[in-house]
Amino acid sequence: MTIVENIYIPTPVRITKIIEETPDVKTFVLDYNAHHLPGQFLQVSVLGVGEAPISIASSPTRQLEICVKKMGSVTTALHNLNENDYIGIRGPYGKPFPLDEMKGHDILIVGGGIGLPPLRSVVDFITDYRNEFGNVEILYGARTPKDIVYKYLFDDWKKKYTVYRSVDYADESWNETVGVVTVLFDKISLDPKNTYSLIVGPPIMIKYAALKLVEMGFDPAKIFVSLERMMKCGVGTCGHCNIGKFYVCKDGPVFRYSVITQYMEAL
Question: Which end of the chain is more exposed for a tag (fewer CB within 10 A), N or C?
Fold first, then answer.
């Protein structure tokens, strides 16, 4: 008798470390090798509560991490867990960022809010294969200074890459740019003709960031966005994440902007 693996049954995975990023965001370090590529996601479950799609926040060259904002029942249950507790994992799923295609080119990374974690997987990958990529510029925007994730990483990133940050609303501690992330675009020094751009964040931010980059001369075919949608199955069968002819879970979540722009409801 042939035993067929059930792709809908999660694998139990132990949480080895929890890092509080912001008042409502935590990073979970997991004892698991997902065999993933940057840009893919996991279906993460808490027993008795449910399952939710969560972007992978780590490079495949490093220990697996997810970064979770407390928003609904599953993410709230995740936030209530402790180190050495177990969660369920399915995946990885979805199309990743095309890192092989990007080799030899400059990279522009644009993140908004909790959109930075999936981009961190790219930053760490580039760091570990630094000689295969050109110059890197990182633009990151958050609502307030307290909402900035990975505060402990920026000093190290600034030693390797050009980094600019902004917040929508500043406090007395903030001495950097104030405004939405697109106000940082005037600081970009990369040549649009030799640059791949990666954008992850709230849909409205993705929409206007991509439009602005195209206006600045960046090639729509070299702009990649990562979309969110109500993903349930993760493998393109339930239809919840449908956008036009695409399923975000299977055909995305990473899309080439030149392809997805015609489906403007996605943004």
Answer: N
Extended beta strands in 132-206, E state: 136-142, 162-167, 177-178, 195-200
Report how far apart, in Å, the C-alpha atoms of 210 and of each of 86, 114, 150, 255 are: 38, 18, 24, 12
What is the Cα–Cα distance from 87 to 34, expressed in whole angstroms? 14
Segment (H or E) for 56:
none
The domains found in the chain, sorted by start residue, are 11-93 (2.40.30.10), 99-226 (3.40.50.80)
From the number of C-beta atoms within 10 Å of its C-beta (0-12, 13-18, 19+), residue 70 rates as: middle
- Contacting residues for 14 by C-beta, under 8 A, at least 6 apart: 30, 31, 32, 84, 85, 86
Cα separation, 207 vs 32, whole angstroms: 34
Which tens digits make up the pLDDT trace of 76-101?
999 999 999 999 999 999 999 999 99
CA distance 163 to 170: 18
Instruction: Count Cβ neighbours within 10 Å for each residue of 108-136 and write b for 16 or more, e otherwise.
Output: bbbbbbbbbbbbbbbbbbbbeeeeebbeb
Query: What's 253's DSSP letter?
Result: B
- Terminal CA-CA length for the chain: 47
pLDDT band at 249 (very low <50, low <70, confident <90, very high): confident
Confidence of residue 229 (pLDDT cuts 50, 70, 90): low
> What's the token pair of residue 138?
């990182």
Continuous segment of H or E residues that includes residue 46: strand 41-46
As given in the structure block, the two tokens for residue 230 are: 């109500």
Residue 34: its H or E element: none
Q: Which two tokens stand for residue 112?
A: 């908004």
Q: What is the per-residue pLDDT across 134-148, written as a single tens digit (0 to 9) for each?
A: 999 999 999 999 999
